[in-house]
Amino acid sequence: MIENRPILNIVSHVVLIFGVLIVALPIWITFVAATHDPVRMTQAPIPMLPGGYFWENFKQTLFGGGLSGTETAPVWRMLLNSLFMALMISFGKIAISLLSAFAIVYFKFPFRMGFFWLIFITLMLPVEVRILPTFEVVADLGMLNSYWGLSIPLIASATATFMFRQVFLTIPDEMLESARIDGAGPMRFFWDILIPLSRTNIAALFVILFIYGWNQYLWPLLITTETDMTTIVMSIKQMLEAAEQSPQWNIIMMTALLAMIPPVFVVVAMQRLFVQGLTETDK
Amino acid sequence: MLKRVHFPTSLLPYLLVAPQVIITLVFFVWPASQAVYQSFLIEDAFGISTEFVWFENFIYLATDEQYLDSFGRTIFFSVCVAVLSMSAALILAGFADRIVRGATTYRTLLIWPYAVAPVLAGALWVFMFNPTLGIFPYLLEFVGVDWNHYLNGSQAMMLVIFAAAWKQIAYNFLFYLAAMQSIPRSLIEAAAIDGAGPLRRFRDHIFPLVSPTTFFLLVINAVYAFFDTFGIIHAVTQGGPANATTILVYKVFNDGFVGLDLGGSAAQSVILMILVIAMTVVQFRYVERKVEY
What are the residue boundaries of the ABC transmembrane type-1 domain, all occurrences included (chain B) (predicted)? Predict the structure, then answer.
């Protein structure tokens, strides 16, 4: 606070509340749509206040067949698929990045810089720009319609490796010296000193990667053809297509709500780690 | 780069980098080189014979009006998304920075759209703007606007821009707020003592001081709009109507998986790779420069 300007303070709050409302509006409309019966959701204008069908819609979406007239996996199954995929991607990325950052920072070996640049390349090639050939590789390896195919091609990560490299570089050399004097080998040092010291960084990265993994869309869309393997985020698109024939917006919006609750919960509940992770990985 | 004290050379470091390197080679380097190779090939309509044609696919793209249109559209889309979401975030962050109490509450309420998947963001917006049911077409009718993004190309473009910008506000807000909060208070106080009002301080001090963040966010938003918005386009418009929202990433997917034009899709992939590499280089140069501050 530089100077006391009551009117400007009020204006600030008004603008911010307005901003919050605009940001929240799509979610509010989604929530409201998920609390009405299907008949009400076919009458324009759609309601702006919640109705009394939340539990019915919730049960029908989660355990029922979901949208009638389409062949999709039950929503609980898709939520599980998403969870597996997100966890495999985030743990996989963290594990292989920790190991490679450890090797690059603490060992001197031929081609060290070559490996470093090789890892750097992954930063430049998002899946969107090499869709078809990557799909062919995964198909040739027989990994279509599997959790491995969903997660492994996405777990190479330059950003995570860079971040851990940065973290390791700030750890004083004396740590290693004393560990070696005490007779610790490389892996002992890694487990007992490096991992505990980078615990918050790992947690912060996990928050970002979980959201990244959960929200994958194009990749699962390509490599899952069996309904049992579809993820919740993908299913929205199929439902929107079905909606053109028979709109059941209450079910679609309930599914959308279920699909966004886990990552949104992670962001809000672990806000401090989220902010840390975001600023560390992108800079 | 390397620790002064380090472990002796052995087999171990190779084992440690192996998982990362193998995955990179199998799923990144190999497909990317395949894309480059395929971009020099033309396959006949039945997929029986392929012919090595050097740069023919690229020359075709450079003269293909649809591709050039898509290029221009992508740039327009990215600029709109970046400007819209960054200016909204800048204004909100500017006010949030002023507030003593409740700034973190506002932050919590503003950052969560980051966690919403692009395709879900698309679904929410397409529902709000559904021509027969949506709340906005209903309201727009009162002012005489007939909204139908299934038929009207510019309305479809507006809709995907809104959805993409909405999702990105959270990210931009977070970085702007952090940048503003790191400006020394004494600087702003000195300006205030010299008689600069809040608007003047924002224009002459805060905005120039957060310009590195603005530049950084420009690059990030461009990358986001180029590559991460596939889900939004796919859910909201499928590139239509009449290609009005076919941005480059969508076109690669469409030509490759739906049109099965391997050579053309691969050539587009290669062009996109060059674009990402250029953007990454710009981003890293900026990071290097920032270290000197």
Answer: 71-283
Question: Is 50 exceeded by the pLDDT of residue B291?
Answer: no
What CATH class is the domain B50-292?
mainly alpha
In a domain, A44, yes or no: no
Q: Do A46 and B133 touch (CB under 8 A)?
A: yes
Q: Which residues of B touch A25 (CB under 8 A)?
A: 128
Q: Is residue A263 part of a domain?
A: no
Which of A99, A259, A268 faces B108 most closely, judged by CB atoms? A268
If phi over 0 gives left and psi between -120 and 50 gives alpha, with beta otherwise, what is residue A126?
beta
Which string of b and e fits A46-82 if b means at least 16 CB within 10 Å?
beeeebebbeebbebbeeeebbeebebbbbebbbebb
- Judge whether A241 and A151 are in contact, CB under 8 Å: no
pLDDT per residue as tens digits for the range B155-190: 999 999 999 999 999 999 999 998 888 888 888 888
pLDDT band at A71 (very low <50, low <70, confident <90, very high): low
Give the total number of structural domains in chain A. 1
Local confidence band at A156 (pLDDT 50, 70, 90 cut-offs): confident
Residue B256: list chain A partners with CB under 8 A.
Answer: 131-132
- Considering only residues B227 and A130, tell me which one the structure prediction assigns the higher pLDDT: B227
Nearest to A131 among B21, B100, B253 (CB): B253
Backbone angles phi, psi at B254, to 5 degrees: -65, -45
Q: Which residues of A touch B43 (CB under 8 A)?
A: none
Q: What is the mean pLDDT of residues A46-54?
A: 78
Distance from CA of A62 to the nearest CA of B (A): 17
